[in-house]
């Protein structure tokens, strides 16, 4: 089975060819890395990316677009308006997408600065009101469930491509044990799906020993990741 674990360093497009019986079915799964500089300072570059994806939807056989987080640079309405306008292009093209929430997509950063906002950064990084206001659950056409009601910070999605079923799970920045355990419980519900986990930062960040245990105990037993 094909599988992917999407981290922040992945680049734009992954072209997947899957042999199904005697026929090869090819599709392209675009992965948007950090778009924070584009939505902040170079919107024309961001718009060119999403317009290119919309134009190539059929020729590249794009079933879905994944974002690994840091959609915006600053947690202000101007940045979020640009991001929302760009994703409107995908909405109009009927291209579903899933977005993982990066630290810049939270109140952990300032309104006009990428530095830490006043207050407790560990608490602020869980405040995602603007993300969920500009991207309500209704915008995510392939979303099937979420860890918290009304919030897409940790959610799962399904799609079909290449003759196979796929499950995408997005996890928050430096995921807490709650979302990790929730995600691990979702996976067994989809034994016939290939699983892609999208997170804006490795579990190893500052919690290497704990995160290694999470991986060994909660994710490694699943054979379809």
Automatic annotation (TrEMBL):
Residues 51-172 form the Calcineurin-like phosphoesterase domain. Residues 1-24 form the signal peptide. Keywords: Signal. Pfam families: Metallophos. InterPro entries: Calcineurin-like_PHP, Metallo-depent_PP-like. It comes from the Bacteria. This is Metallophosphoesterase. It comes from Mucilaginibacter antarcticus.
